[in-house]
Write a structure and sequence with these properties.
Layout (H helix, E strand, L loop, with lengths): L1 H4 L13 H26 L10 H11 L8 H22 L3 H19 L5 H11 L2 H5 L11 H16 L11
C-alpha cells in the first residue's frame, strides 16, 4: 500500500503562462524546426541525407517551452543527442538482427550514459531509438548519424534558441553552457 501512496500526487497544476510567453515559445519552435526542416528538404533529401528526426520535436518543446530547465541547456541538448546517437548506432550494428534487443539496449544505455555524463536530454532516448528503428537511409549513415542529423540539427535549433529566447524580455538563455 505504501507503494501506491507514492502515486497520490499532492502538487497542484502549474499556472498558465502569459500569452506573450506562448508567443515566444511558438515562434521559437516554428523557427527552430522550420530552419532544420527547410535545410533538410531543400538541400539534403535530393542527396539521400537526413537532417530531421522525430526527437527534434521534443527538443523544441524543451528549448522554446521550458528554456530554463536543466534538460534544455546547451550541454544537455548537444551531449544528449550526440551521445545517444553514437549508442544507438552501436546497438544497431551489434544487434540489428535482434531489433527488439538493440532498441531496448540503445535507449537504456543512452539513459545511463546521459545520467553519467550529466547531459540528460529526454529526446536523446528517441534519437538512440531512431538509430535502431530508422530507415535504411539512416542506417547507411553509420556513426555519421551522430553528427548529422543528431549533432547538426540540435546545433541549428540551439542557434535559434539563443536568438529567440534572448529577444524575449522575460527570458534568459542559456542558464549555463557546460
Amino acid at each position: 500500500m505504501n507503494w501506491l501512496n507514492k502515486m497520490s500526487g499532492g502538487a497542484s497544476v502549474p499556472p498558465r503562462l502569459p500569452l506573450i510567453e506562448l508567443f515566444w515559445s511558438g515562434l521559437g519552435a516554428f523557427c527552430g524546426i522550420g530552419l532544420v526542416s527547410y535545410l533538410h528538404y531543400r538541400w539534403l533529401v535530393p542527396h539521400d541525407l537526413a537532417l530531421v528526426i522525430g526527437s527534434f520535436g521534443a527538443s523544441a518543446v524543451l528549448l522554446y517551452g521550458v528554456w530554463g530547465s536543466p534538460l534544455a541547456q546547451p550541454r544537455n541538448l548537444m551531449g544528449g543527442h550526440i551521445l545517444s546517437g553514437i549508442i544507438g548506432v552501436a546497438m544497431y550494428q551489434l544487434l540489428g538482427g535482434i531489433p527488439w534487443l538493440a532498441a531496448a539496449l540503445a535507449v537504456a544505455l543512452s539513459v545511463v550514459a546521459m545520467q553519467w555524463t550529466r547531459t540528460v536530454h529526454p529526446p536523446g532516448g528517441a534519437t538512440a531509438l531512431i538509430a535502431v528503428i530508422g530507415s535504411d537511409q539512416l542506417h547507411a549513415l553509420g556513426y555519421g548519424y551522430a553528427l548529422m542529423p543528431a549533432g547538426l540539427g540540435p546545433l541549428l535549433m540551439l542557434l535559434v534558441a539563443l536568438i529567440v529566447n534572448n529577444l524575449a524580455p522575460s527570458r534568459r538563455y542559456p542558464e549555463y553552457w557546460w
